[in-house]
Amino acid sequence: MEIKLYLQRVYEELHAHPELSLEEVWTAGFVADELRGMGFSVSTQVGGHGVVGLLDLGGAGLTLALRCDMDALPITEETGADFASRNPGAMHACGHDSHMAMVLAACRYAAENRGRLRGKLLAIFQPAEEVGAGAKAMLEAGLFRQQKPDRLVAIHNLPGLATGMLGLQSGPLTAYTDRFKVTFCGVGGHGAIPHKTKDPIAMATAGVQNALALTHRRRDPSLPGVLSFGVIQGGTSFNIIPERVTLEGTVRTVQADDRELMIRLLHQAFQAAADLHGGSYQLEYTRGVPAVVNNAGVVQELSGFFASQIPEVPVASEGLASLIGEDVSYFLQEVPGVLLYIGSGREGAVNELHNPRFLVPRETLITGYKALASVIEGYLSKEGGLPGQEE
């Protein structure tokens, strides 16, 4: 089957059968069957519903890993596409269906050209990315214990980048995505007699102001970072001062030291607010996924592959960083690699991930396939490859 038709067929099939995080049973089965049909040895149920395919190309060479995510979102689709979701309340609104299609097509490329290649290709289909659990679970299940790759390339479509383009940037690309919950405790009472209470609403108000002020004035402003409050809960009536008020929010940073500073500043801000009004506070801080940091050497290698093999594809190299979370960061702490962006933005379309009307364009599939095929050629070709790969 011609590769463009294969890409579209696989994409539409996966798009029509989305499955939520930790429920990717049908998806895993589909992917495993495709890989087996190409000659890959396949492991399933790796860290949940993860699927890992290994193609031994023979000869001395690198082990290259390609990673994509598998899970969908709890969104009701509104695209009107004839291949729209058949699973009510679930949709591939983040484009993970397109990622799987591109990686499967790249695997097919390697299988069909194995006579010209050497080394090993490891295909990682990761579950539960949307809840930040899949990558860590796969590692804990021994993903890299028997076959640790020399390089890892992960992909994600990016609507902020025009269709037909690639995005490849060194250094921090996403953020540490932490969350917190702080509870201010006081003494409740009548709203008309506040001097006999210890008002947790007043503590919460001061706590928000203190935290925002401190994090703006005590952090290095050259480092990206965000503190946001998303939940405030407390009270039952307009004239009753409650006993407790709870706030929840998120902290996003790109460096480990800055993350630790933010935690210290939150404690300082909330302690001062509680002391001011004679109460106390309890902070629950949950560390989320680490920041994705693209390896500069691997970025340079891929840039060379793209320039020599697909010079017609523009590659953006700056302005790609954001404070979203991506748990491929756990893999990139273990193996030199990158998160490669594939442009999916187009004029007049909905260019927003997690939107019920978002669809990945066909051209994005083709661009991603070209990029991954050139990565395979660059690392695994007998004629090419990196210095030191010679038999």
Question: Could you please describe the fold and organization of this structure?
Answer:
It is a single chain. The chain has 391 residues and is an alpha/beta fold. It has two domains: 3-173 and 291-380, 3-Layer(aba) Sandwich (Aminopeptidase); 176-286, 2-Layer Sandwich (Alpha-Beta Plaits). The protein has helices spanning 3-16, 25-37, 96-112, 134-140, 200-218, 256-276, 296-309, 329-332, 362-380, and strands at residues 41-46, 50-58, 63-69, 119-126, 151-162, 166-167, 171-172, 176-185, 189-190, 225-233, 240-241, 244-253, 280-286, 293-294, 315-316, 337-345. The strands form four sheets. An eight-stranded mixed sheet has the order 1-2-4-3-5-16-6-15, with helices on both faces. A four-stranded antiparallel sheet has the order 10-12-8-13, with helices on one face. Strands 7-14 form a two-stranded antiparallel ribbon. The longest helix has 21 residues, at 256-276. The radius of gyration is 24 Å and the shape is elongated.
